[in-house]
Amino acid sequence: MTQWLIALDTDRIKEYLFATPVLSDIRRASGLLDRLNRENTLTVIQKAYPSFNKEDPRQCVYAAGGSALAILPDEETAERAIRAVERLYRKETATASITGIAVPISSDELQKKFGQKVRWAGHKLRKQKVEKGQKRNLPVAPYMHFCDACAQLPASHYDTERDELICRACKIKRLSAGETRRELWAKLIDVTLEKSRPTDAPQEWGDLLETTIGDTTHEKHCTPQDFDAIGNCAKRQGYIALIYADGNRMGQVLEQLNTVEEYNRFARLVDNLLLRVTYRELAKQLEERPNQPFFEVLMAGGDDLMLVTTPDVAFALAIEIARGFEQYSTKLVEDGLSLGIGIAIAHAHYPIAAMQQLATDLQKRAKRRSFETGGKSAVDFAVVTAAGSQDLERIRDEVLTEKGFAFPPPDALRHRLTQRPYTLDELQKLLNRAQKLKETSFPHGQLHTMYEALFYSPVQASLAALQTIGRARKSHREALWTFFQDFGVQRAPVFPPWRDRDDGSRDTALGDLVEIYPFI
Q1: Residue 60 gets which letter from DSSP?
Q2: Which neighbouring-strand residues pair with 295?
Q3: Residues whose CB is less than 8 angstroms from the CB of residue 127 and which lie 6 or more positions away in sequence, other chains included
Q4: Cα(370)–Cα(249) distance, rounded to whole angstroms?
Q5: What 3-state class would DSSP assign to 474?
Q6: Number of domains forming the structure of the chain
Q7: In the chain, what percentage of residues exceed pLDDT 90?
Q8: Residues 240-255: what's their mean pLDDT?
Q9: Tens digits of per-residue pLDDT, 384-404?
């Protein structure tokens, strides 16, 4: 018997979330989209097809992370359900939208080739999304006023609390405060405090939430009012870090699943696992920082996670979330699953939309490193210190290569002035070495002297490094030399801070150390 598979995916989620730079608006937009995805979409499908059972994996396959899969009896019902969900998003958000497609699926494909069928449907869905084109703003006549919050649509309402003229979309976000106030952090609490794993979860997941995390830990969370509140909690006051994590090779794993039941179980458990490891690590941080507004979960669903925290927490948090995800996912996939993580650090006043775009670019580079290392989790990071933003590709491929030298080497040997992205072990080692230098009170000025020499020439960089080692007192010299041993090769003709690579080029981690040093 032929049935119909419908695939739904929210359009340009980040564009909707970061339409305004206000944290409360982002929080409410995120909660609104999460509720629409996980709850209301299924309710609307059930109205279009009353026999639809949300608990049956052969009908409701998946709904999280902005996407949904469902199986309906015929094409007419499937198309009616898609149109209803599309209307739902337009009605509830005014500007957010969702795209859906319907494809026939046979009984054989449900039991033998379901993963391949979903991938084929995904290709068709992406084609449909591209054909929809980019959203265009309405023309604004001279007598109209742009929204004071998003500056995208004509203002139609007055917000008395903030003294702003806002558009309908922004009004919906702000009116939904009571409905979505539980936030994504509260959703993590709902998932985890029950202390019971899903009935079909691996037995080993029973110890995922350690007994050291009490039932009242979440009560120590203080919701930040804005990004400044998070920045004020940082060791280097005023700075925040945006973490964006995404699962590696998920499409490849899903394609290999044969039955709809396997697909449903895998998708649900991956979503549940990422929420649980995230909650566990945030709860550990809360034990150390009770009642401090040092984080906000912006997006959490499927294999995606986006949160804002302080830079001194961000690196350890990203490492531990990735390690927990790797460890417990081995019960779902033999070799386990991994994450590609981007961390963008900037002042709290830096545009959050630009930070998000930078974190996305960093996450993509981290995923490429994961592929090169056989599927290990990887992290890439960048610190924005200037008011303007620059293209990450240009910085990494021009400024942080031999092209950035004031006096390029005559042998045209390729150099990279960074070793990013890092695997988890490499990043942990870098953090440890930075911490050791901190403990010895290594002068920040000497680090910057070596860093500045990197941009003169390879020889000047080595001279500066060797001179610093030779003049440093014993504790500083030992800490610095250990760093160069871990991230370089000390043999002629290669001297610190350089490392020989297998392809014949050289790189250095000195610049990476200098970037993170103020935030440790």
Answers
A1: E
A2: 309
A3: none
A4: 9
A5: helix
A6: 3
A7: 66
A8: 95
A9: 976 545 578 778 887 888 888
| Residue 316 one-letter amino acid | A
Greater confidence, 232 or 301? 232
Q: Give the C-alpha separation, 418 to 11, whole Å.
A: 35
Please answer whether residues 11 and 93 qualify as being in contact, where contact means their C-beta atoms are separated by less than 8 angstroms: no
Strand partners, 241: 309, 345
* Assigned domain for 146 exists: no
Are residues 4 and 102 in contact, defined by beta-carbon separation less than 8 angstroms? yes
**Main-chain phi, psi angles of 414, to 5 degrees:** -75, 135
The span from the CA of 63 to the CA of 346, in Å, is 33
Does the model's pTM come out above 0.90?
A: yes
* Cross-strand partners of 519: none
- Rounded percentage of the chain residues whose pLDDT exceeds 70: 90
Alpha carbon 170 to its chain's center: 24
| Cβ–Cβ under 8 Å, residues 46 and 6 | no
Contact assessment for residue 305 and residue 299, using Cβ atoms and an 8 Å cutoff: yes
Find the CATH number of the domain harbouring 323: 3.30.70.270
- The residue range of the domain holding 510 is 402-519
Domain boundary among 340, 356, 389: 389
